Amino acid sequence: MEEGDDRFRGGLNLHLGFNSYSARYYYFMRSFGPVKESTHVLALSRSFPIPGMKFLWGRLGFAPLLETTKLSYSKQEDQAFDTKEAQTNLGFLLGVFMQVTNSGPLSFQIAWESALYPAGLTGGILLATGRKQLFTLSAGMQL
Hints:
Helix content: under 10%
Strand content: over 45%
Number of domains: 1
Shape: elongated
Order of helices and strands: EEEEEEE
């Protein structure tokens, strides 16, 4: 995942799909000093073929987001400053992916998705946005 700071961090991806509809859950976490951040994204989308491209598909949908930041100090005298914040948002998702399947049940996919989030309920999407770019390489089994 990349959040606009040109720094990528790895995470966990779980993908469930039915026909052209899919739900993907992404979990990312990082710790630095007393700070622990976690990001949860649920990408709900519909896939469609891109005309003239055999293996390339597009994706449109929505992406609810939950971000938590926890500040916890180890020293007893600093623990009064411990805090925990949670932020939620609903974004618009778009992406492209390439999927290769063979005659068996295995499937391989490489994808790029971008979720755009308004800065707040009163923020205009063109004036202030947040984004999450998700790059995934996955292998799975079609049931």
